[in-house]
Design brief:
With 70 residues, this protein is an all-alpha fold. It is built from five helices and no strands. Helix 2 crosses helix 3. This is Helix-turn-helix domain-containing protein.
Length: 70
């Protein structure tokens, strides 16, 4: 599943994939793969991305399922 939340958050700060990658210590390809839903990042990387973008884990990585009933 694509991570559009990450892409939108990155756009809000006008940060390229390359710039975000440099800030969190990974390659641009890694950020691109996370956004495309082709890579499942470690918790450590998720936290680093959140800190770099001023967001929480819930903001960027929590998948909401509106069809789920509690």
């Amino acid at each position: 599943m694509k991570n559009l939340k990450l892409k939108v958050a990155r756009a809000e700060y006008d940060i390229s994939q390359d710039e975000l990658a440099k800030r969190v210590g990974v390659t641009r390809q890694t950020i691109g793969m996370i956004e495309a839903g082709k890579f499942n990042p470690s918790l450590q990387l998720c936290i680093a991305i959140c800190k770099a973008l001023g967001k929480t884990l819930n903001d960027l990585f929590w998948e909401e399922n509106s069809n789920e009933k509690i």
